[in-house]
Amino acid sequence: MEIEVCIRDDQGKPILDANTREIIELLSTLKCANKLQVDNVNFELDSKSVVDNLHNKKSDVSNFGAIINDCKHAFLIFVEFSC
Question: Which of 3, 20, 73, 81 is least buried, going by the fewest C-beta atoms within 10 A?
Fold first, then answer.
Protein backbone atom coordinates (compact mmCIF):
# COMPACT_ATOMS: atom_id res chain seq x y z
CA MET A 1 0.00 0.00 0.00
CA GLU A 2 1.35 3.42 -0.86
CA ILE A 3 -0.09 6.81 -0.02
CA GLU A 4 1.40 10.09 -1.17
CA VAL A 5 0.19 13.52 -0.17
CA CYS A 6 1.38 16.92 -1.27
CA ILE A 7 -0.08 19.98 0.44
CA ARG A 8 0.18 23.11 -1.69
CA ASP A 9 -0.37 26.79 -1.05
CA ASP A 10 -2.80 28.96 -3.03
CA GLN A 11 -0.21 29.32 -5.81
CA GLY A 12 0.41 25.59 -6.21
CA LYS A 13 3.79 25.49 -4.45
CA PRO A 14 4.40 22.61 -2.01
CA ILE A 15 4.25 23.73 1.61
CA LEU A 16 6.46 20.91 2.91
CA ASP A 17 9.84 19.98 1.52
CA ALA A 18 10.53 16.43 0.34
CA ASN A 19 12.32 15.37 3.55
CA THR A 20 9.49 16.55 5.78
CA ARG A 21 6.91 14.82 3.58
CA GLU A 22 8.93 11.59 3.68
CA ILE A 23 9.31 11.57 7.46
CA ILE A 24 5.59 12.31 7.95
CA GLU A 25 4.75 9.45 5.57
CA LEU A 26 7.09 7.14 7.51
CA LEU A 27 5.46 8.10 10.81
CA SER A 28 2.00 7.40 9.36
CA THR A 29 3.20 4.04 8.04
CA LEU A 30 4.73 3.09 11.40
CA LYS A 31 1.50 3.97 13.20
CA CYS A 32 -0.51 1.94 10.70
CA ALA A 33 1.83 -1.07 11.01
CA ASN A 34 1.63 -0.87 14.82
CA LYS A 35 -2.15 -0.65 14.72
CA LEU A 36 -2.43 -3.62 12.35
CA GLN A 37 0.14 -5.53 14.46
CA VAL A 38 2.07 -6.66 11.41
CA ASP A 39 5.62 -7.93 11.66
CA ASN A 40 8.50 -8.63 9.31
CA VAL A 41 8.16 -5.26 7.59
CA ASN A 42 10.82 -3.52 5.52
CA PHE A 43 10.76 0.26 5.43
CA GLU A 44 12.28 1.89 2.38
CA LEU A 45 13.25 5.55 2.34
CA ASP A 46 14.45 7.67 -0.56
CA SER A 47 16.12 10.46 1.40
CA LYS A 48 19.62 9.91 2.78
CA SER A 49 19.07 12.97 4.95
CA VAL A 50 16.04 11.37 6.61
CA VAL A 51 17.93 8.10 7.18
CA ASP A 52 20.90 9.98 8.64
CA ASN A 53 18.61 11.92 10.97
CA LEU A 54 16.92 8.72 12.13
CA HIS A 55 20.35 7.31 13.06
CA ASN A 56 21.59 10.57 14.60
CA LYS A 57 21.65 10.58 18.40
CA LYS A 58 21.82 14.36 18.70
CA SER A 59 18.77 16.31 19.77
CA ASP A 60 16.99 18.43 17.14
CA VAL A 61 14.48 20.96 18.48
CA SER A 62 13.00 21.85 15.07
CA ASN A 63 9.60 20.62 13.85
CA PHE A 64 11.47 18.14 11.62
CA GLY A 65 13.41 16.91 14.64
CA ALA A 66 10.19 16.43 16.60
CA ILE A 67 8.80 14.21 13.83
CA ILE A 68 12.10 12.29 13.71
CA ASN A 69 11.81 11.68 17.46
CA ASP A 70 8.21 10.50 17.01
CA CYS A 71 9.44 8.04 14.35
CA LYS A 72 12.21 6.77 16.62
CA HIS A 73 9.65 6.19 19.37
CA ALA A 74 7.27 4.45 16.94
CA PHE A 75 10.12 2.20 15.78
CA LEU A 76 10.78 1.19 19.40
CA ILE A 77 7.10 0.34 19.93
CA PHE A 78 7.03 -1.55 16.65
CA VAL A 79 10.08 -3.63 17.61
CA GLU A 80 8.64 -4.35 21.08
CA PHE A 81 5.35 -5.67 19.63
CA SER A 82 6.93 -7.67 16.82
CA CYS A 83 9.33 -9.65 19.06
Answer: 3
Task: Classify residue 55 as exposed, middle or buried by CB count within 10 Å of its CB (0-12, 13-18, 19+).
Answer: exposed
pTM for this prediction? 0.75
Residue 6 lies in a domain: yes
Structural domains in the chain (count): 1
Among residues 63, 72, 64, 21, the alpha carbon closest in space to that of 46 is found at 21
44 within domain boundaries = no
Residue of 77, 79, 29 lying closest to 50 (CA atoms): 29
CA distance 14 to 7: 6
Domain boundaries, position 28: 1-39+58-83
Is 18 within the bounds of a domain? yes
